[in-house]
Amino acid sequence: MKKLIVLIALCLSSQVFSQTDEDVLKQIYKTALVEGKSYSWLETLSIDIGGRLSGSLNAERAVDWGKAELDSLGLDKVWLQPVMVPKWVRGAKEFAYIKAGSGVTTNVNICALGGSVATNPLGVTASVVEVKNFEELEALGEAGVKGKIVFYNRPMQADLINTFSAYGGCVDQRYMGAVEAAKYGAAGVIVRSMTLNIDDLPHAGSMTYEDLPVSKRIPSAAISTKDANLLSTMLKLDTSLQFYFKQNCKQLADVKSYNVIGEITGSQFPNEYIIVGGHLDSWDLGDGSHDDGAGIVQSMEVLRLFKTLKIKPKHSIRVVMFMNEENGLRGATEYAKEAKAKGEKHVVSLESDAGGFTPRGFSFDCTEASFNKILGWKPLFEPYLIHYFIQGGAGADVRPLKTDSNITAGLRPDSQRYFDHHHAANDTFDAVNKRELELGAASMAALVYLFDTHGI
Amino acid sequence: MKKLIVLIALCLSSQVFSQTDEDVLKQIYKTALVEGKSYSWLETLSIDIGGRLSGSLNAERAVDWGKAELDSLGLDKVWLQPVMVPKWVRGAKEFAYIKAGSGVTTNVNICALGGSVATNPLGVTASVVEVKNFEELEALGEAGVKGKIVFYNRPMQADLINTFSAYGGCVDQRYMGAVEAAKYGAAGVIVRSMTLNIDDLPHAGSMTYEDLPVSKRIPSAAISTKDANLLSTMLKLDTSLQFYFKQNCKQLADVKSYNVIGEITGSQFPNEYIIVGGHLDSWDLGDGSHDDGAGIVQSMEVLRLFKTLKIKPKHSIRVVMFMNEENGLRGATEYAKEAKAKGEKHVVSLESDAGGFTPRGFSFDCTEASFNKILGWKPLFEPYLIHYFIQGGAGADVRPLKTDSNITAGLRPDSQRYFDHHHAANDTFDAVNKRELELGAASMAALVYLFDTHGI
Description:
alpha/beta, 16 strands, Glucose Oxidase, domain 1, 14 helices, Aminopeptidase, eight-stranded mixed β-sheet, homodimer, PA_dom_sf (chains A, B)
């Protein structure tokens, strides 16, 4: 009899919610696919605004646009969080060529890496030494490197199924290449673009000089993979060939910018936060549609879906458009600092920053107990062909929010096409598929709903 | 002691094979991704040959190309299997406009459906009646339909996650629309294109007149989704508007064509066949890269991978390039007929005909016992992010080979982008991603390897 009462009580309690998790997820996916807004938002952000490097006029316009759109959603709060960001400018288009011993020159496609110094105004001409890694560089030493251009040419590994693993295995060349080569007196650095495609596009991205004095900083640029292959082949035939490149990029003083934040205040736990976000800044060569316009509009869509479906969350749900992920992470740092100062408890922080491709699942940085609980939700996602739940790193913007007890998480879309576009001139709106983008937004909303309903 | 002997025997036996299934799959995926040939094959088939409608010169060229490429692989046998195929030709580009009551005309994008008759040489002008399905058509009856153009405008359902389900729910309009409308004396048929995109591209595809006498056959065309929306909106404002279209397509006499077949003869069961295939013909508007150039080159790659990795199969492994899937299925019918006549036992027939997108899994038409055995292989595929194993229909070309005891199967790639390109002018090489295509080929090779090694 007691069991029966419990059973009836359970039935009644489930009637109070009146909808099962399955039903809510179905509504979320249906609404995102049939009357979603993420794609038209992305069209505006990508086409009307475009590439939005931190500190640029376009980044300012993106902030204004983001706030205006959030204002229109009827959220409980929308605000701008000020943050000082670096302002690096590319300047005039870079120019580079290979000069063979015969004197014949072949133009190649390069772009200055973000944060790099300019060459001198007339450009740098030097012979080239090709290396695959820092060990080879060290073995060459000052005798082999001084006065030369170091050409880092270790390709991304094509047999890794997750292309982010292939990226992770190569990006040290781009980020640390200049500081390592400068140790041996190199005149400059050329880095093979971080892509698996063999094409003509140089891929930008950040690099560092660490604490190198300004006088020791050497210019650093990415070269397209096709031209990297060409340079490597020509070097094998003629080690005395010369490489010329000119770039007039510049690091200016920091400028004021903003994170854009919107909130639906929780009905039961208003001071406990589940946040969804992406980064509003992008590189400047394309329009930043995949990196990370997609994450921005998907995060906005999560809150819009909650409003449209009249889901009243127990926790406060925030969308955070982080500023300056690409070359400083200042927005994320500032957001985490203020959250800590105010004692805001961030229970779950979910980022989308891996492109607007078909979602395959999520990665979670969390306790074993939380992960096991999350694994229990896998069947709810299977109708949407979401199968991939792993413990692993979340996005860079939510990492500063990690504590021992909370969860940071990342949407994991299909990664095959991501590095075809990453930081390059073809990261543009036409490379985003409407349904793939919408499925990602729906998957994020579904996960947020489950966290809000069932806790962590 | 007995247990120890068994254990040693097991170790020795596994050493005889010298490689575990995991190792072989790793080699298959690595070879496909690092030194695959499928993408460069597709480039030739798509760019150098192009769209290859059954009976066309391009289809002939594709047959010659396919045979030459198979000849170069060092297979045990390569041959052409003759088959008579229909030859339908589009003729001059179609032309259509909406004429408002005011007399103002608006051009719209249409294409004749495959198998349709021409309009009369001056075109058809008639008023339009819009229906969503055959029930609405029947309700209108002859009084509402006679002399008019029937406009089928039921859209694909966007909230279905698998876009093939959405296609399946609509394609009756295209295939049966003319024969149904002719019953009530319609002057012609315009069908909303089978795509979830709202764009300007009409999507071709086959239609039937069943046993309708030639004199009763009415012309049938697809209209782009954007123009379907326009026509529907204009009709709401002005039911008396006129629609004009002109097409001069034609059904000619059947011509001789071929299936292209290559074989690695099995070492233990030479008269038991595992086949992989796709269809060599395509529609004519694009170059047929996804439908089904991808399936062709992936199937070729399966046999090339076996040769490259020196895997000597126990069963005979065949690649079959089926002719005329799109508008007749003559190649598949002939292949199955001859296989039956010769008593060739087809244990597994695997088709790739759903585009060259990231593979998600396979569908199997097989016994429960076989399916359970296959499910046991799922962990082998997880490192390659293949999670989706279902019982369901295989491709059209392998269906005629189905028996009670054998297996037909289909590769299941991600379906989100497929109908953006399906049968339209943008089914072109640039819409195929190299790695996605290669992962599909590797997945097919892996499955074939497991069937060959472990049986069904």
